[in-house]
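ok, trying the design again with the full structure, not the truncated one.
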């Protein structure tokens, strides 16, 4: 019995979701920036790849201080990316191809260009408009020191001082990310109502689900005295329910209200939380009364190593069984170093996804062939697991991180706010190569907003489509097979004599074997359905996965 039926309310449980970073996917009008008509033109590609849904990173009007995660208008399309009509055409084309559509919602902060923030600046101290954000007086004699010592995610203080309407230096506002991303005050009813309006706006337009950005940050306790930065930290997976801004229990009230909105629709709209919280506190985000699903990022920070993968898989399957949600498997996204590159790093440098620690120079040490072999093996392993798998654009080409983007072309606020000490995330956001030749490798008719290296030619869609052994063709075959083989959300581990092998069986006799070591190992009897690397002698080579029956 095939349980995955995209026509039902449960379509998301074992869906393969393909993340599109719209500005870097496909450019229809030659301005160097990917756009919605570009996505529409590639729907046949997505259909042939065999994905069940696409998730679009933000495509809303934005000053692009943070790649679109600084939203100036939540219910519109950035004119550089198209119009609402283009959105409807894209949505219709995806749906006609049987592909669901998920959009990104960024509720923790707006852009500083958002009309609310502009109104807050104009209205001045003590106003209702300022209360929609977190404005405070500064410390020190003239209020010229920030209210506290908290730091922001992209480097530098989490506070920025504004000029008051009369031109004098004035209050400070909180921004946990870039200074162009002021944090909203989620105690306000109008903030809550406006986001519910946004969820209905896109649901009414036929959007099937939402990815919720920084879902654990919305509620804050900013009463004084403030805890010092050394105590509150940043990005640590806190167990403290009284943490001033991360993972406070009240945040779930917001999502319970959103669940009611999602359930107004048939089928109910889905949601997945981006919540970097302690694993024991992920359940309420994923529960059916909450957002319904939450990303598990454990594999992003794991080594390419059998026992670590097994532990992570076991834990996550247990956790999703407790909440009734399904697991989410991710190896790459727009925030981390591409996994083909991570896995090519020498042992010791780590295969974890901290893009911000991978300085440009480390790229000289990447063994690209080993990285790609491991990436193919790991992806096949993920695709055999119960639950849903999130793929990031370009990984189906085995694409590597671009390490040598010149400083003058960098866009990530991390690069600027750390004065280049951390290169940031541009290397995984370089526009995709569609053809082996031509301007911007077929991305558009002219340039690309981030420079593409010459080696992109070898990874182009058209080149890989013609190569039976390419990563693209492996993904296509794997997704088609998964569609046929996917059954109930359970697995049974198979013990293998080699400690470097991770093997399991799904109902119906679908077996997956991954060899994390470098030496070939024996395989049991059976029919080989698909292999990430060819093996002439019927053994499983190192850094490889096979599916058997
Ligand atoms: C999330 C996004 C990231 C963005 C940040 C701030 O972590 O994935 O790209 O920079 O939120 O919105």
């Amino acid at each position: 019995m095939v349980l995955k039926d995209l026509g039902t309310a449960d379509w998301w449980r074992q869906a393969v979701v393909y993340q599109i970073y719209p500005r870097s996917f496909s450019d229809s009008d030659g301005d160097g920036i990917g756009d919605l008509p570009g996505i529409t033109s590639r729907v046949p590609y997505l259909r042939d790849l065999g994905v069940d849904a696409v998730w679009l990173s933000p495509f809303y009007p934005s000053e692009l201080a943070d790649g679109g995660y600084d939203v100036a208008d939540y219910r519109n399309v950035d004119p550089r990316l198209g119009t609402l009509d283009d959105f409807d055409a894209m949505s219709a084309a995806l749906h006609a191809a049987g592909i669901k559509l998920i959009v990104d919602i960024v509720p923790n902060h707006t852009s500083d260009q958002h009309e609310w923030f502009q109104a807050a600046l104009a209205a001045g101290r003590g106003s209702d408009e300022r209360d929609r954000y977190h404005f405070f007086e500064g410390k020190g004699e003239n209020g010229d020191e920030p209210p506290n010592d908290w730091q922001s995610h992209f480097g530098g203080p989490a506070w920025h001082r504004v000029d008051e309407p009369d031109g004098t230096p004035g209050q400070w506002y909180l921004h946990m990310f870039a200074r162009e991303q002021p944090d909203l005050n989620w105690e306000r009813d109008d903030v809550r109502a406006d986001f519910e309006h946004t969820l209905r706006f896109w649901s009414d337009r036929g959007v099937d689900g939402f990815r919720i950005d920084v879902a654990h940050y919305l509620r804050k306790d900013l009463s004084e005295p403030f805890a010092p930065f050394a105590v509150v930290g940043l990005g640590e997976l806190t167990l403290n329910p009284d943490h001033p801004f991360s993972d406070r229990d009240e945040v779930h009230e917001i999502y319970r209200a959103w669940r009611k909105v999602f359930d107004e629709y048939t089928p109910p709209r889905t949601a997945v939380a981006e919540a970097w919280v302690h694993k024991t506190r992920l359940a309420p985000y994923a529960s059916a009364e909450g957002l319904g699903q939450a990303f598990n990022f454990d594999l992003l920070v794991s080594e390419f190593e059998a026992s670590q993968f097994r532990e992570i898989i076991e834990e996550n399957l247990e956790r999703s069984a407790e909440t009734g949600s399904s697991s989410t498997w991710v190896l790459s996204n727009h925030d981390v170093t591409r996994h083909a590159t991570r896995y090519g790093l020498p042992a010791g440098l780590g295969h974890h996804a901290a893009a911000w620690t991978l300085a440009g120079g480390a790229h000289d040490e990447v063994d690209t062939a080993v990285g790609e072999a491991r990436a193919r093996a790991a992806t096949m392993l993920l695709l055999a697991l119960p639950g849903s798998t999130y793929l990031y654009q370009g990984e189906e080409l085995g694409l590597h991180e671009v390490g040598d983007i010149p400083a003058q072309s960098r866009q990530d606020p991390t690069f600027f706010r750390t004065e280049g000490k951390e290169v940031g995330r541009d290397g995984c956001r370089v526009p995709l190569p569609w053809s082996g030749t031509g301007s911007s490798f077929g991305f558009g008719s002219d340039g690309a907003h981030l420079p593409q290296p010459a080696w992109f030619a070898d990874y182009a869609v058209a080149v890989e489509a013609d190569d039976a052994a390419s990563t693209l063709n492996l993904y296509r075959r794997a997704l088609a097979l998964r569609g046929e083989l996917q059954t109930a959300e359970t697995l049974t581990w198979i013990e293998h004599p080699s400690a470097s092998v991770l093997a399991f069986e799904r109902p119906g006799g679908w077996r997956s074997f991954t060899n994390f070591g470098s030496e070939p190992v024996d395989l049991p009897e059976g029919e080989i359905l698909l292999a990430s690397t060819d093996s002439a002698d019927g053994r499983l080579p190192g850094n490889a996965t096979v599916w058997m029956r």
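Keeping the full-length input from now on. The pocket of alpha-D-glucopyranose is lined by residues 66, 69, 106, 177, 213-214, 274, 334-335 (CB under 6 Å).
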